[in-house]
Amino acid sequence: HPLVKAGGFDMLFNAQYHFLPLFEDLAPQVWLPIGFDEIRFSKDLIMEPVCDVSFIGQTGLAGLIYDQDDSIGHYATRYSGDRFARTRFAFHFHDGFDYAERGEMLLRLCDDFNVRIYGDVWDEGYAKAIQAGRVGFNRSLLHDFGNRNFELMASRRTFVADEVPGHGFLYQHGIHALLYRTYFKPHFDNFRLEYEAARDLIRRLLDQPPLRDRMEEDAFELAWQFHSFSARAKFMIMNVERIKRGDPPIPFERLVSLDD
After folding, report:
1. With b meaning 16 or more CB within 10 Å and e meaning fewer, what string describes 53-81?
2. DSSP labels, 111-134
3. Is residue 78 within 8 Å of 65, Cβ to Cβ?
């Protein structure tokens, strides 16, 4: 179990902000958010959008009907099957990755926008798929950070995503992205509020190209300066050296100041 093993280390790097309290008494720890792999992306790659909204990742939906784009890879725009199909995977803390909310959000977006859902895309095709939509979309599974938001930022694509703990230290609502609150569970009425919030933010970005362009440039500069894997590695090495000298680690929250 991670909590048992953690006490044996001189220092911990924790990828998820909301897990920090679990480890705070075990060893010195620093929040180290996931970033993007700059080897997979190029600052010079510019692709014209082919749809309103794009998503890359697992949906848990059995019944997506896939088409083929020879320059990118397989994508889905249509669906046939149980709208509430669910897939669960084991997680470290015996919770499950519950795809129901993400899947239902995507299905509803397909009803209102021209959406492409990409699954297995790799290498250059992945970098192109990130840019396929005028707007990127994301819905986290466990209020956690993944690579996707940073990859969109690094590819000059603004995005609409749910709020997750710690996001204000990494990007800001209205400047680098547009964020909505999550209410959970598609069968609850509050889920309708979540979807309508996400839908309205996407429409706002689609209807205001100047706003979209400004946010894309601001997010692009921020991503390449602070959120690449190389930047994360330098931050890790700096703190390892500080621990070896007996100095306290520098929190990631002090590294990026978005209020300046």
Report:
1. bbbbbebbbeebeeeebeebbbbbeebee
2. HHS-EEEE-S--HHHHHHHHTSEE
3. yes
C-alpha dihedral sign at 127, 133, 135, 136? negative
Q: How many residues does the chain have?
A: 260
240 token code pair: 């390892």
Answer left, alpha or beta for residue 156, where phi above 0 means left and psi between -120 and 50 means alpha: left
What is the model's pLDDT at position 85?
37
Helices and strands, number each (H, E), in the chain = 8, 9
Contact predicate 180/101, CB 8 Å: no
* Beta partners for residue 228, in sequence order: 36
Distance, in Å, from the CA atom of 217 to the CA atom of 57, rounded to the nearest integer, reads: 24
DSSP state of 248: P
pLDDT of residue 80: 52
| pTM, 2 dp | 0.86
Q: What's the pLDDT at 234?
A: 95
Strand order in the sheet with 115-118: 64-69, 73-79, 115-118, 51-56, 133-138, 159-162, 178-180
Comparing 220 with 87, the larger pLDDT belongs to 220
At position 90, the amino acid (one-letter code) is: A
Q: Is the dihedral of CA 117, 122, 124, 126 positive or negative?
A: positive
The dihedral region occupied by 197, where left means phi > 0, alpha psi between -120 and 50, and beta the remainder, is alpha
How far is Cα 78 from Cα 117, in angstroms, rounded to an integer?
9
Rounded Cα gap, residues 173 and 162, in angstroms: 10
Q: 70 or 136: whose pLDDT is higher?
A: 136
